[in-house]
Request: fold
Amino acid sequence: MKHNEYGQMIFDQNDLCNFVMRGQDITKLKLLVDDTVNFELAASVLENPGSLLKWTFAVENNQSVTEFDVQQQNHWHMPNEYQQLDIAQHVLSLCKSDTELQRVGHELLLYQERDLFNLLRYLKYLVDLMRDNRLIWGVGRGSSVSSYVLYLLGVHRIDSIYYNLDIAEFLR
Reply:
């Protein structure tokens, strides 16, 4: 596997074979594939060679890296239930006191000003996915621990209200 200038993963024939050998159904994955892949050979590995892969073009003609980044930031790869989630209402529902409600309300306004609600939805999805698969992640790191919203979502385990951490340290 290698990365193109846009940071996307480009898979080669060996990568595809490794996926299949691990039992992954690559027909359901949307992969960017190196143009050196011999599809006939790769398809012979599968029982249904006609459904192997659909070629995906990574970049529109003459698209700059900046334009590509903006395009990619508009699409978050997560299930519809998370894309449709009213993240503000969800986080507010996790509050147990007026102090928490005030802090969360203030933080949500800051997240909204920066158009970061999709990021919060994605973090909710990621945390749920890690919990469902019993994956362990760190206690917290850097300025992100100053966000009480991230604490409520389970991204970190540092109660920023208890430690009197200012959200301004995170959302500069």
Summary: The first helix runs from residue 13 to 21. The CA atoms of residues 17 and 23 lie 10 Å apart. Residues 47-57 have pLDDT under 50 and may be disordered.
